[in-house]
């Protein structure tokens, strides 16, 4: 068991490596009869989300996690003490998209500037509980990640508060590489207890993980940022979740 308030790398289980030939999948589009929530952050929608601090997994606020909206982006752009971890979970409220769907797709586009203080992670969360427990598909640039500090793609199960444990169900995939300052679109297809994760760094979606785990069977979906210190910035655009095929 891995016990930490930040990523640790004991007893993780490796996920399958990314395919050498990209698997191209289309960006989800609205289909009649599908339930969906989408946010292009063109207006102040911070009130549409519930927030959890990025290490304790305790309930917080948009301001507490340094989330703002500006210029069509959800931003984590800390201006406070540079020695304080910034970021957290922003989870769509259940009144806007239900937490008990057996199948859904969640997608968003990210950009991060650097690894200030050897930290910086971003990605998607899903099946998030009221105590901040979740699954996450992330690009992890933290020095204490599951890949010995080498930035990589990871699939993580987090037990939430009050004692936060991280389990690396998928780890150590570095292809396709995320280049700092560029954009990447991340996507997770949830079907029952199966989670298929994709990343598109500009050449089409590549399957990174295909994970099955039954620990969490319901919960919210949204955005994760972690360890975004003063001098770094993450911007998120075009977030959506839907039940379309």
Structural class: mainly beta
Distance between the termini: 36 Å
Amount of helix: under 10%
Unreliable stretches: 1-31
- Largest beta-sheet details: 8 strands, antiparallel
Mean model confidence by pLDDT:
87
Topology:
Layout: E1 36-39, E2 49-53, E3 59-60, E4 67-70, E5 73-76, E6 88-92, E7 103-112, E8 121-128, E9 134-140, E10 152-158, E11 166-173, E12 183-191, E13 194-200, E14 206-212, E15 220-226, E16 234-242
Antiparallel strand pairs: 1-16, 2-3, 2-6, 4-5, 5-16, 6-15, 7-12, 7-16, 8-9, 8-15, 9-10, 10-11, 12-13, 13-14
Can you put this structure into words, describing what you see?
This protein is globular. The chain contains no helices and 16 strands. Helix content is 0%, strand content 42%.
List keywords for this structure.
8-stranded antiparallel sheet; mainly beta; disordered N terminus; 245 residues
Short overview:
0% of the residues lie in helices and 42% in strands.
């Amino acid at each position: 068991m891995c016990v930490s308030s930040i990523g640790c790398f004991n007893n993780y289980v490796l996920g399958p490596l990314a395919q050498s030939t990209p698997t191209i999948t289309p960006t989800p589009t609205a289909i009649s009869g599908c339930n969906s929530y989408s946010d292009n952050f063109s207006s102040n929608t911070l009130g549409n989300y519930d927030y959890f601090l990025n290490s304790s997994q305790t309930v917080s606020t948009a301001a507490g996690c340094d989330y703002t909206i500006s210029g069509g982006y959800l931003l984590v752009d800390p201006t406070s003490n540079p020695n304080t971890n910034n970021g957290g979970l922003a989870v769509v409220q259940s009144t806007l998209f239900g937490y008990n769907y057996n199948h859904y797709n969640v997608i968003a586009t990210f950009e991060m500037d650097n690894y200030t203080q050897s930290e910086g992670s971003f990605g998607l969360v899903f099946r998030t509980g009221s105590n901040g427990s979740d699954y996450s598909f992330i690009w992890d640039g933290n020095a204490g990640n599951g890949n010995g500090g080498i930035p990589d793609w990871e699939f993580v199960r987090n037990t939430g508060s009050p004692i936060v444990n991280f389990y690396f169900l998928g780890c150590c995939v570095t292809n396709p590489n995320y280049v700092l300052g560029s954009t990447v679109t991340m996507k997770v297809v949830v079907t029952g207890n199966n989670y298929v994760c994709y990343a598109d760094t500009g050449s089409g979606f590549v399957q990174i993980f295909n994970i099955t785990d039954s620990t969490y069977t319901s919960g919210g979906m949204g955005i994760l940022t972690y360890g975004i210190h003063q001098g770094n910035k993450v911007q998120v655009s075009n977030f959506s979740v839907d039940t379309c095929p």
